[in-house]
Each structure stands twice: as C-alpha cells, then as structure tokens.
User: Which sequence fits this backbone?
C-alpha cells in the first residue's frame, strides 16, 4: 500500500526533472532581440560586386563591423566565428554566411578585405562602401565608431562597438553577441538556430 | 509498459503544460520586449561637446525628438520629460542611472548655443538631461526616422511636422519601449512604471532568476 503511493511520486519527480531538462528552452549566450520588423537591408561592395543582406535570405547571417588594420579584437572575434563554423561541420556551416563590414573604406579595398576575411574562414565575405553608406549602416545596427590617432607603426585606429550580430533566415535581427563570446557559445547558439 | 511509468509520463507532460500555461496566464514576472537595436550616433550637445551613443551605455535612456521653435504646448514633450525626472524617486532603480536626451530635428536653428539657452529656460539639469543634434541632416534623418522610427519633416516655413515620441533604451543599447500615442494612463506614468520593470530585470540578471526572466521573454509576458 505504502509502496503504491510512494513509487508514483518518486517516478513523477524523477520524470519531471528529466522532462524539464529535455524540454527546457535553449538558453542563448547572446542577447535575444524580438524584432518586429526585418533588419535594415544594406547594399555595399565586395570583391565580386554589390552585396546586400537580402541576398542571403534563407541563411543565418553573422555581421561583424571592423577593419583589416584592427590590432586585436577583430581578429579574435573572426577567428572564434571561423572555429565555431569548423566545429559545426561543413553542412551546417554552409547554412551560415559571415559578413564583415569594413569601417575603413580608405584603406580596406574590397580585394584586400576578401584576402583578410578568407584567412579566418573561406566562406567569409568582406564589404565596404562610401563613408555615407557606412555611417548609415553602422547607425542602424547600433555600431558606434570613431577614428583615433595611432602610432607611426599602426597608422590611425578605429574605436568601434565590437558586437557580433546574428540575422535569422527571415532577415530579422535575432541575436547580439557581446565581445568576448567564445567558440562554443557561438556554435551552440548557431546550432540551435539552424534547427529552427 | 508499467502502469506507474505511464502515469508518471502523463503527469510530467501535464505538469509542464500546466506550468507553461500558468506562467503565460498569471505572468508572475513581467518584462519589456527587446525590440531592436538603438541607433548609434555622434551628436553635438548644448555645451558644443560630442554626445555619443557609446557614452550612454550602461544607463537607461529616455529619448525624445522636438525643436525649440515648436509652438507651445508642443505635445507637452518638455513637460513629460520634466515630470519623469521629478518623479524618478518613486521608482526603485537599483542604482542604475537614467539619462534623458532631447534630439532636435531642426539643427539649422537649434545650434548648441540655442539648445543651451533652451535647457536653461527649462531649468534642466544638463548632467542628466542633454539636448543635442547634428548638422549632418542625412545622418540625423537616419538616426531619428530609420533608427528611432520617428517621423518628422521640415515644412519649409519654419515649422516641422512630426509625431511626438519617447523611446526607452536599456544599458545594452536595446530599445525596450516606445510611447507614441495617448493612452488613458499618461506617458509619464507608463515610462516610470517601465523604468521599474527594467531595473528589476537588471537586478535579476544572474543565475536562476535570469532563467525565469528569459522565460518571461519567451512567453511574451510584457508589462502593459
């Protein structure tokens, strides 16, 4: 009699724990945005001509703002994204397009950008535009940037917001990773979004 | 299959559904939606110094848009900004600073000097309430119309057509609320209540309580 009461309770408790564990919502490592409308559709220039966000509808798009002379944070972030894609495997990685938008049109030609970004992952593309174009796209993606004098060795530097943005397959901004996000964290969130 | 096991599984599924529904219906936790990224900007303030979106990070910011020649009562924009500031002590902000920024849509006439005099005439504490604009009108349009999604247009006779709006941005630079129309509750009341909701989320942004708050986002438990 006693067992008849206790056993179901134990089973339910155990099951509940397992159930909650398996059905728990994915905990994103980035900040989730519930955008009511699609992200601003920019049109900038890459090595093979114009590139706009809408060209990649159907894929996840990672957007990073930086420049090729960037001494530390840009290569660190791009390297992490490259490694995350390698960890996901070729099939999944082919569903993701990473775009670096250069804040330094004066020094970063489309050709030079292409050489730079493919160093981190062969699928990456780099784009840039006129100063006015860059001012518009950065403002609308919440990226602040400002030219700072550097040394003779580095040339001028550009301070900039170092977030990594994820646009979902429908063109909505979905996720904002802060600077310092790790390879595993990027891979984990991308994998979840690819399953959606 | 063992009867107990089957009952157990049904029980679990039932409990999960019930707790999800209960969470949605009773909304034990309310949040403000993370609507979009606030636009980045580099404006010039009433002291002729730059005011950037970057230096406002970490604070809650209430933005509004107007011009100093706007015929009174001008939608009571300044009065609402003043009321929110005067009543901030009604809200438990948990130590988070709140900044107020009025962006002028009329940079030709609203020079830093004019904005400075205007701030003084309102008795504004400019360490907390700044007035700013930029002479780059293309960029101003991008920031206000596309970024903050607030319509304005120069009518060419010294007047501007515009939709009054307040936009509340959190410390991560994410737009959390917009106030664009009159409701039975005044804008100031809603803004103050929302500041409290935001502050509560910031204070609970670690560990288990963070999970509960993320669940509130997931279930769209938005504060009215």
Assistant:
């Amino acid at each position: 009699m006693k067992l008849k009461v206790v056993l179901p309770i134990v089973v339910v408790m155990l099951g509940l724990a397992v159930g909650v564990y398996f059905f728990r919502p994915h905990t994103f490592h980035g900040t989730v945005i519930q955008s009511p409308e699609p992200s601003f559709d920019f049109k900038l220039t890459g090595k093979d001509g114009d590139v706009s966000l809408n060209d990649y509808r159907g894929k996840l798009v990672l957007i990073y703002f930086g420049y090729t002379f960037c001494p530390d944070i840009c290569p660190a972030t791009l390297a992490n994204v490259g490694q995350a894609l390698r960890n996901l495997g070729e099939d999944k990685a082919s569903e993701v397009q990473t775009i670096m938008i250069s804040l330094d049109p004066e020094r970063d030609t489309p050709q030079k950008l292409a050489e730079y970004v493919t160093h981190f992952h062969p699928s990456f593309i780099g784009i840039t535009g006129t100063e006015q174009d860059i001012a518009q796209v950065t403002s609308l993606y919440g990226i602040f940037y400002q030219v700072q004098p550097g040394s003779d060795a580095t040339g001028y530097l550009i301070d900039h917001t170092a977030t990594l943005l994820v646009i979902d397959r429908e063109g909505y901004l979905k996720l904002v990773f802060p600077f310092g996000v790790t390879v595993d964290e990027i891979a984990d969130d991308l994998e979840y979004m690819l399953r959606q | 299959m063992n009867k107990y096991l089957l009952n157990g599984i049904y029980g679990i599924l039932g409990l999960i559904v019930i707790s999800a529904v209960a969470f949605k219906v009773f909304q034990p936790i309310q949040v403000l939606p993370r609507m979009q990224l606030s636009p980045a900007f580099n404006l010039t303030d009433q002291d002729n110094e730059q005011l950037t979106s970057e230096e406002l990070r970490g604070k809650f910011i209430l933005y509004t848009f107007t011009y100093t020649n706007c015929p009174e009562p001008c939608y009571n924009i300044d009065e609402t900004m003043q009321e929110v500031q005067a009543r901030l002590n009604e809200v438990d902000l948990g130590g988070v600073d709140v900044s107020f920024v009025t962006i002028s849509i009329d940079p030709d006439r609203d020079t830093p000097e004019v904005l400075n005099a205007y701030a003084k005439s309102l008795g504004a504490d400019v360490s907390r309430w700044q007035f700013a604009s930029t002479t780059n009108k293309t960029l101003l349009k991008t920031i206000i119309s596309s970024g903050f999604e607030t319509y304005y247009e120069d009518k060419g006779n010294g007047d501007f057509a515009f939709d009054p709006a307040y936009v509340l941005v959190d410390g991560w630079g994410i737009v959390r609320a917009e106030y664009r129309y009159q409701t039975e509750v005044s804008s100031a009341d809603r803004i103050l209540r929302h500041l409290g909701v935001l502050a509560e989320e910031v204070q609970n942004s670690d560990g288990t309580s963070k999970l509960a708050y993320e669940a509130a986002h997931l279930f769209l438990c938005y504060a009215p």
The first helix of chain A runs from residue 2 to 23. Residues 28-195 of chain A form a domain with the Glutaredoxin fold (CATH 3.40.30.10).
